[in-house]
Amino acid sequence: MHIGFIGLGNMGAPMARNLLAAGHRLSVHDLSAPAVAGLAQAGATVADSPAALAREVELIITMLPASAHVKGVYLGEDGLLAQVRPGVMLIDSSTIDPLSAREVAAAARQHGNPMLDAPVSGGTAGAAAGTLTFMVGGETADFERARPVLAAMGRNIVHCGPAGNGQVAKVANNMLLGISMIGVAEAMSLGVALGMEPKVLAGVINSSSGRCWSSDSYNPFPGVMDNVPAAHGYSGGFGTDLMLKDLGLASEAARQARQPVILGALAQQLYQAFSAQGNGALDFSAIVNLYRKDANA
User: Fold this and answer.
1) How far apart, in Å, are the Cα atoms of 230 and each of 181, 233, 264, 288?
2) CB neighbours of 61 closer than 8 A, spacing ≥ 6?
3) What DSSP designation does 276 have?
4) In b/e form, how buried is each residue of 169-193, taking b as 16+ CB within 10 angstroms?
5) Is 170 designated active site?
6) Which residues contact 169 (CB under 8 A, 6 or more apart)?
7) Residue ranges of the alpha helices (H) in the chain?
8) Which of 29, 54, 115, 269 could form a disulfide bond with 47, CB atoms 3.0-4.6 angstroms apart?
């Protein structure tokens, strides 16, 4: 299949490479010349603009930073919907708010293009390994049609319901992740301050009722686990500012739905404070440094 891919950042570039590895013909576009050059070297064709890409391909995938970028690429005067042929499937894997996803999907349907919102979980490592989770919103028939393409980039592909529901699943999941990481950070820091060895405390938590992904797979306390950001100065992983963005999306969606998210709002404020201290590029698990006495001595 001839696929167009727009957005070759830390997630998009390895996803695009996996499509090439699966045997798809690929046309790509990005504002970053080095990113485009890397995909061209891997075998992709370069399109000068989204409009140029839209005129050539059978399916388009976008992976963009925020709602404004998604709306600009799809709905702009010379955007995808102004140029793409009716019938071409559109898949947006950006993480944006559900209402924006539904707005773009409605415009696509009006133009005659099936559209799925398909945000991902799994980070850059999952993008490179092709083991991402895709949370997909859209019509069932469109989901089944897109599944083989998504399977080239991910391992767990879940249909979450109609348009926008992929984004609903993503913001709800990441809000919980942000909250749970803060809880683990507080508990670990308290136990260590009271005299426990971090590995012993983590072992107790991970065999007891406090166990969660943030404790047993991504523990934020240094010295507990290897091959997590806490073991490498909190470099790599999922940045604090990215978590802050997702918590902002959850808060805005909650405002629109008139749904209280009290712990989500508190988590957003804690990550905002942490980012304002100059830590936005650190992995989000570095939030533990707000609590560690040795980190703030």
Assistant:
1) 12, 6, 23, 9
2) 3, 4, 5, 6, 15, 19, 91, 92, 93, 149
3) I
4) bbbbbbbbbbbbbbbbbebbbebbe
5) yes
6) 119, 135, 137, 158, 160
7) 12-21, 33-42, 50-54, 67-75, 80-83, 98-111, 123-129, 140-151, 165-193, 198-206, 213-216, 240-257, 262-274
8) 29
pLDDT tens per residue across span 269-282: 999 999 999 999 99
pLDDT digits (tens, 9 = 90+) for 165-195: 999 999 999 999 999 999 999 999 999 999 9
Element counts in the chain: helices (H) and strands (E): 13, 9
- Enter the DSSP assignment of 66: S
**DSSP state for residue 44 in the 8-state scheme:** P
Q: Are 2 and 24 in contact (CB under 8 A)?
A: yes
Active-site residue identified among 170, 199, 245, 293: 170
Tokens (6 digits) for 150: 């998504």
d(CA 146, CA 151) in angstroms, rounded, equals: 9
